[in-house]
Amino acid sequence: MIFLQSLWARIWPYIALVAAAFAAFFGIRQAGKVAGKAEAESEQQQAVAEKREKAREVDEKLDQMGDSDIRDRAKSWVRDD
Q1: N or C terminus of the chain with fewer C-beta within 10 Å?
Q2: Residues near 65 by beta carbon (within 8 Å), at least 6 away in sequence
Q3: Domain boundaries defined on the chain
Q4: Could you give the CA distance from residue 19 to residue 27 in angstroms, rounded to a whole number?
Q5: CA dihedral 21, 23, 28, 33 (to 10 degrees)
Q6: pLDDT digits (tens, 9 = 90+) for 21-53
Q7: What is the mean pLDDT of residues 1-11?
Q8: Rounded distance between C-alpha atoms, residue 9 and residue 14, angstroms
Q9: Each residue of 9-39: b (16+ CB within 10 Å) or e?
């Protein structure tokens, strides 16, 4: 019994060190995952904002054009069968 107590006293710091290393590894890994997710979400929101701006520009351009101009531009996209 005394042998087990002395063995436990000797290996306890190493067990604590390994546990702390695992905790640090998983903590850093989780922080990296959160940061990567936030960066991807930011890029996606920026892309959506750019597309929304482009759609607004096209909508404004169409509002400025007359019906005949819109019809002429649409004819270039349709085949004459």
Answers
A1: C
A2: 73
A3: 13-75
A4: 12
A5: 140
A6: 999 999 999 999 999 999 999 999 999 999 999
A7: 83
A8: 10
A9: eeeeeeeeeeeeeeeeeeeeeeeeeeeeeee
